[in-house]
Amino acid sequence: MHVDSTGKLVKAPCNAWSTCGNNLLANDFLGSMNASDVTFKSSGIERFRLKHNGPIFFKDFESQPLALLHTIGGDLFTIDMPNDPSLFLNSQGQFINLPAGSFAWTQGSGVVHNISDNIGIGTNLPLYKLHVKYDPGAQSNGILIESTSASNSNTEIKFAWNGDDQWAIGNSVAHNGDRNFFIYDNQANTGWGATRFYINDEGRVGIGVIPPSGSLPPNSHYKLYVDGGIMTRDVKVTAQTPFPDYVFESNYKLLSIDELKEFVAINKHLPGIPSADTVKEEDGFEVGKLQLKLLEKLEEQTLYIISLQQQINELRAVLESK
Predict the structure, then answer these.
(1) Residue 174 CB: number of other CB atoms within 10 A?
(2) Is it the case that residue 85 has pLDDT exceeding 90?
(3) Which of the two residues, 155 and 95, has the higher pLDDT score?
(4) What is the number of H-type helices and E-type strands within the chain?
């Protein structure tokens, strides 16, 4: 302190700043007293600037900063924590790591985590917990979940409610082989739940059941396997064998009534129709093929009826002539 020429007690003049260290008082500071920026240089080149209104600015120092910390240019910008990087990205936003914390990003349309805890990819206004928006005409759109293990991979999306009440959709080597796709539910924290929908690596679809694999008969050539009934308004079957109109051809060899009687007595089923033992051994029957066979039998019965009517007419004519 010292007294000036008017007798007033004033603060002592500021001392020079020492590069070897200074003993600072409570009111000492490094900076400016007016509305000028504070610049920091090395090798005579300005590196960053503390603007007079508060923000710290890197590069393009005459521009108006948009935040308290604003950097422009292609240099890597990193906020680091010991052994755990919290945020790092380049000027194009090509890589971001956010292991923890709460952030609110609004600039650009890369990755956005807003104050409502919604995450957006390709959109600044995510409306859901995960909102992905993209150009349908662009390449490599969508979401990829990939496992690097060839022996025990498990790529799936799980949905849970109240702990163990879960269901999942995904692919798993451990779940009945690789290159499959499944939906299952009621899964506990460990183990597999009930399979509701399954597509194996051979394109066979199972509803409520896992479809067979390989080429073993008798059911290896089917594409849809259902555990339970199917209710529908209509079914169309594409026939692979000729439709039985051939029964009405003049050269069709129809068994006589006596031959039919003998066959039924011995085999206990109609000719061309599988027996009960055959249906049991083959674990069912093919609806399309059996329907054609039943139609064949119906058309044969029509021929028998026509033949019987002819015989009746002949007998009536004989009786009337007497």
Answers:
(1) 12
(2) no
(3) 155
(4) 3, 17
Among 15, 12, 28, 14, which Cα is nearest to 4's? 12
Q: Is the pLDDT of residue 186 over 80?
A: no
- Residue carrying structure tokens 């051939």: 246
Q: Which of 16-30, 86-100, 103-117, 217-231 has the highest mean pLDDT?
A: 217-231
Examine the pLDDT at 13 and tell me if it is beyond 80: no
pLDDT of res. 199: 86
Question: Residue 195 corresponds to which amino acid?
Answer: T
Is there a contact between 212 and 203 (Cβ–Cβ < 8 Å)? no
206 CB-contact burial (10 Å; exposed 0-12 / middle 13-18 / buried 19+): buried
**Which position has the token pair 């292991």?**
99
List, as one string, the DSSP characters of 206-219.
EESSPPP-SS-SSS
Q: Which amino acid is at 122?
A: G
Instruction: DSSP for 46-109, please give it.
Output: EEEEE-TTS-EEESSTTSPPSSSEEE-SSS-EEE--TTS--EEE-TT-------SS-----SSS
Q: How far is 15 from 25, CA to CA, in rounded Å?
A: 11
Burial 289-318 (b: 16+ CB within 10 A, else e): eeebbeebbebbeeeeeeeeeeeeeeeeee
pLDDT at residue 177, rounded to an integer: 52
12 Cβ contact partners less than 8 Å away, ≥ 6 residues apart: 1, 2
What does the alpha-carbon distance between residue 181 and residue 283 come to, in Å, rounded to a whole number?
26
Alpha-carbon distance of 208 to 112, in angstroms, equals 40
